Amino acid sequence: MTAADLPTLNACLNTxxxxxxxLGYVNIRRGRIARHRRFMLAALLSSTLFLCSYLTYHYLxxxxxxxxxxxxxPLYFAILIPHVVLAALMGPFVVIAVRRAWRGDFVxxxxxxxxxLPVWMFVSVSGVAIYWMLYRL
Length: 137
Description:
Layout: H1 6-29, H2 33-61, H3 72-102, H4 106-136
């Protein structure tokens, strides 16, 4: 595997995270707490692996400019900017949510998770969209 392969790996990890988040949500809504826990921990692992791969890629390659100067450029930045801001902000909140669940404070965990899940889902899905726009268009 080379640095050139990492963006595809990153997109795959983001896709896996989004699917696992959705499955975790479905399972908690159905009262399947143990399954919910497994899916959410797997989503956390997938996102952590993504972050390691992402940081490695940008350490090796640096910044990658958007190559198109057409109508897709404003759309790309409209997706990229909230993606980057929300991704940077959500890390501490994920740690807090996991810590609350780990300690058994499920009321506080659920209160935070209700707000965090859509943000995490947006970051995962928009990450895949950014990949497609940057590397596949």
